[in-house]
Amino acid sequence: MKFPRRYSLKEIAALIQCEYLGDDDFPVMGMNEIHVVTPGDIVFVDHPKYYDKALKSDASIVLINKEVECPVGKALLISEDPFTDFNKLTLHFQPFQRSEKLISDSAEVGAGTILQPNVFLGNEVKIGKNCLIHANVSIGDRCEIDDNVIIHSGTVLGGDAFYYKKRPEGFDKLRSGGRVVIKDDVEIGSNCTIDRGVTGDTIIGKGSKLDNLIQIGHDTVIGKNCLIASQTGIAGCVIVENNVTIWGQVGIRSDITITEGTVLMAQSGISKTTTPGMSYWGSPAMEAKAKLKELAFIKQIPKLIDQLNKKDNGFKK
């Protein structure tokens, strides 16, 4: 998320009422999670395990819960609770805006686009040309849809990220200030849910096709010409490269990459980054041919035990 103007370190510290290390006028251009930070951004960290990663990231400002040595060329915001203060910044720069009607006055809809009854367009939504948005689709604030896109009934774009911090009193929600971006020639089936990014964008690439009943988590990026079948669940911060095929009921964990040309067979559980062009099956998934060989060997176990018993080789009948 980029701020509407350049802010100073002193201004940002005043917003969240915390101490800081760095020049008063140190430039602050935005805020992002660690996987999408760029120079000028704030990143937050609240666990010693991740201090080094945050301090060495591309972020210029680190919102941290301990005063540590500040790297050259960076600044620190010292906070008792970086998670809460990061939320304060999100709510300041992207506050919730109530909608008063189905189609927001600030929404933009391109020529030739058809909106069926009961479509909801939130604030600052942008839709390109020659799209077809079927009945009862909900598109949240600031989402962007390019040209020639089809979205079927009941789909929700721009729901909040599923991201919580466990506290003694319960779960504390990380606020979502990002967007969903749908590129040209995408088709999305019925009753899909695509969550907005926390600070960045969840993206569906040009020409990709999604079946019904698919969940895509926050900040996930789907590449070009991907085919995703129904009941697939993709966690947050996943990268799916171009020309990937994902069959039904596949589950994909967060922070991994499904590399170009990968095929994920039905009901696979994907826990690691894949190898380009390979097919996977099973849970935990492995290369499909190897998995089939493994199953063939497993089927031979009763026969081998029977043979050993007949030889009286230490096995009781």
TrEMBL record:
Keyword Acyltransferase tagged: yes
A GO term for molecular function: UDP-3-O-[(3R)-3-hydroxyacyl]-glucosamine N-acyltransferase activity
Record's protein name: UDP-3-O-(3-hydroxymyristoyl)glucosamine N-acyltransferase
UniProt xrefs under Pfam families: Hexapep (PF00132), LpxD (PF04613)
Domain UDP-3-O-[3-hydroxymyristoyl] glucosamine N-acyltransferase non-repeat region per the UniProt entry, residue ranges: 25-90
SUPFAM superfamilies: Trimeric LpxA-like enzymes
Domain of life of the native organism: Bacteria
Species this protein is from: Christiangramia antarctica
Keyword Lipid biosynthesis: yes
InterPro entries listed in its UniProt record: Hexapep, LpxD, Trimer_LpxA-like_sf, UDP_GlcNAc_AcTrfase_non-rep
Entry's EC annotation: 2.3.1.191
Protein keywords: Acyltransferase, Lipid A biosynthesis, Lipid biosynthesis, Lipid metabolism, Repeat, Transferase
The organism's taxonomic lineage, starting at the top: Bacteria, Pseudomonadati, Bacteroidota, Flavobacteriia, Flavobacteriales
Any coiled-coil regions, as ranges: none
